[in-house]
């Protein structure tokens, strides 16, 4: 066992028995490199990463390769999900140097942590235009030995260029208006795949944050093209192989442009975001298809990712044993016609092959197919489909299961809390709301300290050693605010406020900028700061959204001002790269609309109160916040001095705490929550 044996991260523990003498990230590793006068090999990955596992098997488990690395380097292994800050600063260097990035990330550093040579996956021997890993390592050693001065100059120049990158490059700190948001929509339409949905070509990632923008833009403006792009993309994804047609839930991305063949790992973050997208699509359209996908994905999270402590695990691996001892990508999910026949019999196997798109040639590898739901299935026997799906799911459960990374990441649990709370409320599933409450309770008990500071991860109910980053604060606050709106428990709003105070005090920079790490965090070669989305909302825009919602709930001017300042970058980037600022665009839609504030005042257990509350939650106006409670309740500031109407429950629709006339009629409330029906003052 090497030095990773005491790690909490399942990814690091996977490498604890490698012959490579791995060190965890920390000062001790760099002190060792200085003492020995050798460079540092930094390898960054995550447990569900297929190519991380491939490189581990090919190189890090190879005794000869490990022996060479141990002599000539101090080898440091990092779980990017534990240390997104370390990942971000070095990935920025990799992308600047090579024009691309990905995992595993392989970077060679000086003992001061300055990068000088970069890459991602390297095969053991040169192939397909990639150099062999041992050849690369030997080349680095030669350069370090023979041209150390030149190496130092290169490293210093790279660090200097990274440090010179500042948020000022993103332009003025003015929130986007109608013009910028319309320009973003037009730019998105230009890259939209009209045949298969989504944006751009292969590989194709679920554009979760962009879909939220499109739904909000349609809700605010009535722009039909925005809704059409969102609806068609959602249907194409859920019909494709990227969606698990048996067990629900989405894989990380599709390797093609048609959503057919996925990269099979399933991430909590993706599924939380997409659950919310499909629930919101149902809210806008009433689509039964969207409802089914939202519920199936929510049920997948609870069934497959829930931990015993109440939170949600990070991911399921792409690879698993194929039954013959081989560790194969997708083995758990794919089918051949013969496998269908063995489980279903000839008649139902033929039906299932046609229904799910399983062919003799296969859509994946070695004649296997990823299950899809092709267009043109027509009218089918729903009972037969259910029977086939049930039997195939039972058969699949007997296969060796993919590994699970069971660490709890605060940010991603925040996303799950918001998704499960809203989905449970929309579809009368109190079990989903309870799952959201349980996860929120875990975050408060284990991740949150008395100063309002978060731990990034936990495992088995024990907080990890790494501090939360900005996305943790933004996403957890978002989840808590959504939970407060659904449950009517103001304590979740209070916890959100505690987190957002930490954002204002420790993450905010001048002129509305935000940093990904706190002002008292470990100093890296540069303080990471990135407003663009990746697989989940950037910390910058996640925080902006939570700040805006909290201000709408409380009337806090500092939080509103901070949200608007943070949205300045969206105005700069929206017309250029809207796909990479999707959550910022969604938040900007809320800011432009208000957002609406709905106070529902009435007795607990009163059917009219419940109906008004549900109507408010189903309002599609962008970013609407909802408070519910009895008259004179102190749970929410929005309820202050909001009386019932002659003893009957009433709803108040407001902006900036200035309200339209209260109503006790759910139909009137529904009308007030449409963009074109607002008669009150607009925010200045």
Q: How would you concisely characterize the structure shown here?
A:
With 684 residues, the chain is of the alpha+beta class.
Describe the structure.
It is globular and about 85 Å long. The strands form six sheets. A five-stranded mixed beta sheet has the order 1-3-2-4-5, sandwiched between helices. Strands 17-16-18-19 form a four-stranded mixed beta sheet, with helices on both faces. It has 684 residues and is α+β, with helices and mostly antiparallel strands. The chain has 25 helices and 19 strands. It starts with 9 loop residues before the first helix and ends in a 12-residue tail after the last helix. 48% of the residues lie in helices and 10% in strands.
Q: Which percent range describes the beta-strand content?
A: 5-15%
Main β-sheet description:
5 strands, mixed
Report Rg: 26 Å
Structural class label: alpha+beta
Number of helices: 25
Averaged pLDDT, please?
Answer: 94
Cα(first) to Cα(last) distance is 62 Å
What is the overall silhouette? globular
Low-confidence runs of at least 5 consecutive residues: 677-684
Q: Which bin fits the share of residues in helices?
A: 40-55%
Strand order across the biggest sheet? Answer: 1-3-2-4-5
Oligomer: single chain
Number of strands: 19
């Amino acid at each position: 066992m090497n030095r990773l044996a005491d790690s909490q991260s399942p990814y690091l523990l996977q490498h604890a028995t490698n012959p490579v003498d791995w060190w965890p990230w920390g000062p001790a590793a760099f002190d060792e490199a200085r003492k020995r006068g050798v460079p540092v090999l930094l390898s960054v990955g995550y447990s569900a990463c297929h190519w991380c596992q491939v490189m581990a098997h090919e190189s890090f488990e190879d005794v000869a390769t490990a022996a060479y690395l141990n002599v000539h380097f101090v080898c440091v292994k990092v779980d990017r999900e534990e240390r997104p800050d370390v990942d971000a600063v070095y990935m920025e260097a990799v992308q600047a140097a090579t024009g691309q990035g990905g995992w595993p990330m392989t970077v060679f550093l000086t003992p001061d942590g300055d990068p000088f040579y970069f890459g991602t996956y390297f095969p053991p021997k040169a192939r397909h235009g990639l150099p062999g890993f041992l050849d690369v390592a030997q080349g680095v050693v030669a350069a370090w030995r023979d041209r150390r001065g030149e190496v130092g100059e290169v490293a210093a120049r790279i660090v200097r260029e990274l440090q010179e990158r500042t948020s000022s490059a993103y332009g003025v700190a003015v929130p986007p208006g109608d013009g910028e948001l319309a320009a973003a929509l037009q730019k998105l339409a230009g890259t939209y795949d009209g045949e298969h949905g989504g944006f751009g070509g292969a590989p194709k990632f679920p554009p979760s944050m962009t879909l939220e923008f499109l739904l909000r833009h349609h809700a605010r403006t009535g722009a039909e093209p925005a809704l059409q792009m969102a609806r068609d993309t959602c249907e194409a994804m859920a019909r494709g192989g990227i969606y698990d047609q048996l067990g629900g839930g989405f894989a990380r991305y599709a390797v093609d442009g048609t959503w057919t063949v996925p990269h099979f790992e399933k991430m909590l973050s993706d599924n939380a975001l997409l659950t919310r997208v499909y629930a919101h699509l149902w809210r806008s359209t009433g689509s039964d298809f969207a409802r089914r996908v939202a519920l199936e994905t929510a049920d997948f999270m609870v069934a497959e990712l829930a931990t015993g402590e109440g939170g949600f695990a990070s991911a399921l691996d792409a690879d698993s044993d194929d039954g013959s001892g081989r560790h194969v990508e997708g083995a758990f999910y794919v089918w051949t016609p013969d496998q269908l026949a063995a489980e279903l019999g000839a008649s139902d196997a033929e039906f299932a092959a046609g229904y799910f798109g399983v062919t003799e040639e296969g859509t994946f590898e070695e004649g296997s197919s990823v299950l899809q739901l092709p267009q043109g299935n027509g009218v089918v026997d729903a009972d037969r489909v259910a029977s086939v799906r049930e039997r195939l799911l039972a058969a699949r459960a007997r296969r060796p299961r993919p590994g699970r990374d069971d660490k709890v990441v605060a940010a991603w649990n925040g996303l799950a809390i918001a998704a499960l709370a809203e989905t449970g409320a929309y579809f009368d599933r109190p079990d989903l709301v309870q799952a959201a409450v349980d996860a929120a309770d875990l975050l408060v008990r284990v991740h949150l300290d008395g100063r309002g500071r978060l731990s990034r991860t936990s495992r088995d109910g024990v907080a990890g050693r790494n501090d939360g980053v900005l996305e943790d604060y933004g996403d957890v606050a978002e989840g808590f605010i959504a939970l407060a709106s659904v449950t009517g428990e103001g304590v979740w709003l209070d916890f959100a406020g505690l987190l957002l105070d930490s954002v204002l005090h420790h993450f905010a920079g001048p002129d509305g900028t935000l940093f990904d790490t706190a002002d008292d965090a470990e100093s890296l070669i540069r303080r990471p700061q990135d407003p663009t989305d990746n697989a989940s909302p950037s910390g910058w825009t996640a925080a902006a959204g939570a700040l805006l919602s909290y201000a709408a709930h409380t009337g806090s001017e500092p939080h509103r001002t901070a949200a608007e300042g943070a949205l300045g970058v969206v105005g700069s980037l929206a017309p250029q790269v809207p796909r990479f600022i999707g959550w910022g665009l969604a938040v900007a839609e809320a800011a432009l609309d208000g957002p609406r504030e709905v106070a529902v005042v009435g007795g607990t257990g009163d059917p009219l109160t419940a109906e008004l509350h549900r109507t408010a939650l189903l309002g599609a106006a962008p970013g609407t916040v909802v408070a519910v409670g009895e008259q004179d309740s102190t749970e929410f500031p929005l309820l202050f001095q909001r009386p019932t109407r002659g003893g009957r429950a009433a709803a108040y629709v407001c902006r900036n705490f200035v309200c339209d006339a209260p109503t006790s009629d759910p139909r009137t409330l529904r009308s007030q929550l449409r963009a074109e029906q607002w008669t009150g003052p607009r925010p200045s």
